[in-house]
Amino acid sequence: MATASYEKIEKNPAYQELVRKRSSFGWTLSATMLIIYFGFILLVGYAPKTLGIPLGTGVMTVGIPVGLVVIISAFVLTGIYVLRANSEYDALVRKIVEDAK
Amino acid sequence: MSAKKFLTGATAGALAFLPTLALAAGAIEGGSKQEINAAAIGMFLAFVLLTLGITYWAAKQTRSAAQFYTAGGGITGFQNGLAIAGDYMSAASFLGISGLVYLSGYDGLIYSVGWLVGWPIVTFLIAEQLRNLGKFTFADVASFRFAQTPIRVLAACGTLVTVAFYLIAQMVGAGKLIQLLFGLDYWMAVVIVGALMIVYVTFGGMVATTWVQIIKACLLLAGASFMALMVLYTFGFSPESLFAKAVEVHPKKIAIMEPGSLISNPLSAVSLGLALMFGTAGLPHILMRFFTVSDAKAARKSVFYATGFIGYFYILTFIIGFGAITLVSTNPEFLAAGKTGLAAIKGGSNMAAIHLASAVGGNVFLGFISAVAFATILAVVSGLTLAGASAISHDLYATVIKNGKANEQDEIRISKISTIFLGILAVILGIVFENQNVAFMVGLAFAIAASCNFPVLVMSIFWKGMTTRGAVIGGFLGLAAALVGVVLSPGVWEAVFGNPKGSAPFPYDNPALFSMTIAFAGIWIGSLLDSSKRAAEDRAGFPAQYVRSQTGIGAAGAASH
């Protein structure tokens, strides 16, 4: 496979771009997930009644859509990352691998 | 035979899977042997025959170590996503969470959410890096640039302790559940689970384990979808009417639509949340699944699919729980004779989903769901056993004892012997712990995974400054802190040891908030103060490791066969 040393790869601008983009995006998305989840948990812990506020005239409360949104956000955030990684990051990785040959 | 009859009696079986549900769910009424359910046994036998057939097919291609540990890296992203979901969605999630929703409504959703949110973190931070750096076990990654022996021993301890507690909880739960659903003796149920799991893993390795998990995931998702659909159909596909009816018949009335008493202490909630979230990212049998795909791209895709399946499944359990409130608690057939009301449910709240299966699909569907519950347990214990056996054969035997120079066939032989040993041990422990309260064990497994495996893994991938000594100090401190924290928590100190209520020295149900802090601090301080020759090598190895983790250059490819 690759013959180039890691020092040479490290100097490749494509590699630097990949690392910069992927790290900042990965940590940003992780922080987003943590904020959403622990926001939810703190709401449950400190202000459970907020989630019990009725939505409309029926029995439906704010808590139901909020819980659903947390579940769906986990899926959507993962999807956003995978989509970007599949196009952008994989293209960079391919270029780095080519350059390293 | 009557579908309803064999469900009389009670068990805390499925409770055994869940850490804190014990506090919420009904009393243990002692599981007694039930009448034999022919439909359930017939369908379960069909599942066993199919999976044994697959094992036979898998055994013929499982010749190399790569085949045995990782199916040769030949599983696709989609297949692996299903298998991860199959590995992760235990009978506890299905029966325990729907039972919790049945009892407390909204509180069940809080648990579901906690069990899901670890997955995005796995995708963003470790899935691709794991695939790029590792070969068979997560210790391959954690020990990449470090002294092999200490880190392998640490990772093997973290793996085996996590696997042992998780396995005991599964075996005890399995015995109780099967006794109830199929009318088999407890010991017989445990022996059947142990024997099948040994056969799958020993002969079929990762290939058979993966397909057992995929089939189980499909069956469970199909069964749960059907139940949720029937519940929604009953209410004209109007969630509002479903919730309105549930509020009307539930003794807690409108309180089921908001967080209840389950999470009363915010700090305790945060600590549990951390354990669920980061424990997921440190479970050895889950991490191992990332080595079964061909490359980093497939690894990331597989978590995406898994997150989708698992999230969808938890939404279904919420609907199933509410469906059980409306259709089970109002039907005298499912309640203890002469009693009315939600709490009178036959078999306790963990049977809510099972009774609902009977309510919406009759006896045959009830048999199907019972067989799925059995299959679910088998899939989870197989994955656990394979992870434990790999830690023994790949990390301890091949790397520590044989210094990385083990003969491949010897290594496979050791892993098969380890599988048989772990299987027999699991059966013995399952029988020993039959009448013990094992509800805390899954919580403990998650706490250890979050406090030992996860910190060492994530720091080894991202922190240049980590040294062998720092990792060993932090990892073992985290492991010890998690163990001590759980022993001193109310769930063990009061519920298991029988000390008076309120006497637990450690007031929270899960120690993760503290034990994770201790682990990270231990790694950090231990590494900073380390000025040994080895430490210099550890730090010097980081750039090369980082390049490989980012690009996959030099990573183990899919084995051809």
TrEMBL record, chain A:
It comes from the Bacteria. Pfam families: DUF485. GO terms for cellular component: plasma membrane. The chain crosses the membrane at residues 25-47, 59-83. The keyword Cell membrane does not apply. Keywords: Membrane, Transmembrane, Transmembrane helix. It comes from Alsobacter soli. This is DUF485 domain-containing protein.
TrEMBL record, chain B:
One of its GO terms (cellular component) is plasma membrane. Coiled coil: none annotated. It is found in: Cell inner membrane. Keywords: Cell inner membrane, Cell membrane, Ion transport, Membrane, Signal, Sodium, Sodium transport, Symport, Transmembrane, Transmembrane helix, Transport. It is a multi-pass membrane protein. Pfam families: SSF. InterPro entries: Na/Glc_symporter_sf, Na/solute_symporter, Na/solute_symporter_CS, Sodium:Solute_Symporter. Residues 1-24 form the signal peptide. GO terms for biological process: plasma membrane acetate transport; sodium ion transport. PROSITE patterns: NA_SOLUT_SYMP_1 (PS00456), NA_SOLUT_SYMP_3 (PS50283). GO terms for molecular function: acetate transmembrane transporter activity; symporter activity. The chain crosses the membrane at residues 40-59, 80-103, 109-127, 153-174, 186-207, 214-235, 267-291, 303-325, 365-393, 414-433, 439-463, 470-492, 512-529. PANTHER family: CATION_ACETATE SYMPORTER ACTP, SODIUM/PROLINE SYMPORTER-RELATED. Belongs to the sodium:solute symporter (SSF) (TC 2.A.21) family. This is Cation/acetate symporter ActP. It comes from Alsobacter soli. The lineage of its organism: Bacteria, Pseudomonadati, Pseudomonadota, Alphaproteobacteria, Hyphomicrobiales.
